[in-house]
Design brief:
The longest helix is centred in the middle third of the chain and has 22 residues. The chain has a single domain, classed as TIM Barrel. The chain has 11 helices and 13 strands. Helix 5 packs parallel to helix 6. By secondary structure, it is an alpha/beta fold. The protein is globular. Helix 9 links the parallel strand 12 and strand 13. The strands form 3 sheets. Strands 3-4-7-8-9-10-12-13 form an 8-stranded parallel barrel, surrounded by 4 helices.
Length: 343
């Protein structure tokens, strides 16, 4: 951080309930973004432009979805030096998410467990925040991540995704279809062969209509889980290509607890993120790259706690890298370190 070592605010925040700390941080970012106080957490953006799926990213480091579900801190996050920021997951209607407590720190493992459950204020509020943001005007790339409401039956999930795609399309540099959160019942079933093919086919059909309507093509990515075997990854890769999807984000959080056995909170339900996910995520990236060939865009995310971890994602086959839990544990300086390491 420009004016304050991150160890100081981290020590305060880590003495608070994780969700309370999260809300305080996001409220501060929202309130003080685009003001002189943004210099407290700001970093110069490393210039390392790369073009993927027809979009030019200012550098290879992005903010992963999930931190800013309502899109209210896009400029505050962008000021940390990210080349791209992804916000959401947004659902058509507002929903509270799962009961609290639903976020847990595992500091011995540099990890978090969350079972938030797509808590967000709904599509209309999300779009109002997105429209106010100035990040795209400064050259930043904005990804908008879409999902389904918890009350929507899984057999009707495509309806929610289509509503969200219609809403976010004019305001996104790319759209991410989230089918991999472990915290919405049955959501991961959409990763299966026939369900994924049906969902992506209808989304692609709607996108063709939106291309005609808006006169621009917005790339569509799909975010998948780390808890997949090589056969499942191969089926997903083939389905993405069949349906003309532009890229894949690998990976979401894991339901495995193998790496954190015996630690406090390790048995809490939800998705595990942070350092323990690094190798599982990298393995999926390697399998995707082998299945998809050298040119298909892959964004790697999961377990990036250092510049070396970011390089490991590139070595596994990722074109771009996102961070989330690493930002919470290491602070905004991680953004610049990773961007510089990949330049």
């Amino acid at each position: 951080m420009a004016l304050l070592p991150y160890a100081l605010p981290r020590s305060v925040l880590f003495n608070l309930d994780p969700e309370v700390a999260h809300e305080l941080t996001m409220s501060a970012l929202a309130r003080f973004q685009n003001t002189p106080l943004a210099c407290v957490w700001g970093n110069e953006r490393i210039s390392d432009p790369v073009t993927l799926a027809g979009v030019t990213f200012p550098n290879r480091i992005g903010m992963a979805a999930g931190l800013d579900k309502n899109g209210r801190c896009i400029d505050g996050l962008g000021a940390m030096g990210f080349g791209f920021v992804e916000v959401g997951t947004v659902t058509p209607k507002a929903q509270p998410g799962n009961p609290k407590p639903r976020m847990f720190r595992l500091p011995e493992a540099n990890a978090l467990i969350n079972r938030l459950g797509f808590n967000n204020e709904g599509l209309d509020a999300f779009l109002a925040n997105v429209k106010r943001a100035k990040f795209r005007q400064t050259g930043g790339v904005l990804g908008l991540n879409i999902g389904k409401n918890a009350v929507t039956p899984i057999e009707n999930a495509v309806d929610d995704y289509l509503i969200c795609l219609e809403g976010v399309y004019p305001h996104a540099d790319y759209v991410t279809v989230n089918i991999s959160s472990p915290n919405t019942k049955n959501l991961r079933a959409l990763q299966s062969d026939e369900a994924l093919d049906a969902l992506l086919g209808q989304l692609q059909e709607r996108r063709q209509q939106l291309i005609t309507r808006h006169g621009r093509t917005v790339p569509m990515f799909v975010k998948i889980a780390p808890d997949l075997d090589e056969t499942q990854v191969g089926v997903i890769a083939a389905t993405l290509q069949k349906n003309g999807i532009d890229g894949v984000i690998a990976t979401n959080t894991t339901i495995s607890r193998e790496a954190v056995k015996g630690l406090k909170h390790a048995e809490e339900a939800g998705g595990l993120s942070g350092a323990p996910v690094l190798e599982a995520s990298n393995q999926v990236i390697r399998q995707l790259r082998a299945a998809l060939g050298p040119r298909f865009p892959i964004i790697g995310v999961g377990g990036v706690m250092s510049a070396a971890d970011a390089r490991s994602k590139r070595d596994a086959g990722a074109d771009l890298v996102q961070i989330y839990t690493g930002l919470i544990y290491q602070g905004p300086g991680l953004v610049k370190d990773c961007a510089q390491a990949l330049k």
